[in-house]
Amino acid sequence: MDGEMWINLLCMYVSAINNGTVPNIESAWTQICRNKAQQALALIVDQFEREVAELGTPVSQQEYEKSLHDAERTAIKDLHKELQIDAQFISEYTSKLKQHLAKRVKELVSLNHQNC
Fold first, then answer.
1. Percentage of the chain exceeding pLDDT 90
2. Domain locations in the chain?
């Protein structure tokens, strides 16, 4: 747990106490993990987009698709490194990343094909 996670946890506890309820440790931790996973997902998607921008277009379709799939594998591996918190979140956010990347790769391949 890093400093930001501790602060978020403390804020959730204080908010619960101020609202007259007993802090729920499990739900607070789940929310912290979900926030961390969402931040990691956004970071990895941005990293993927930067890598893709460096590829440039147009290039041969086969070469471009290979580069995109390499970037996609790297993004998934990087997400797993970032999400060393809970297997449930790794699975959930890997699925979200794969869905996003599949859609994005399809768009990029089509765009590259139009430019060739």
1. 29
2. 36-115
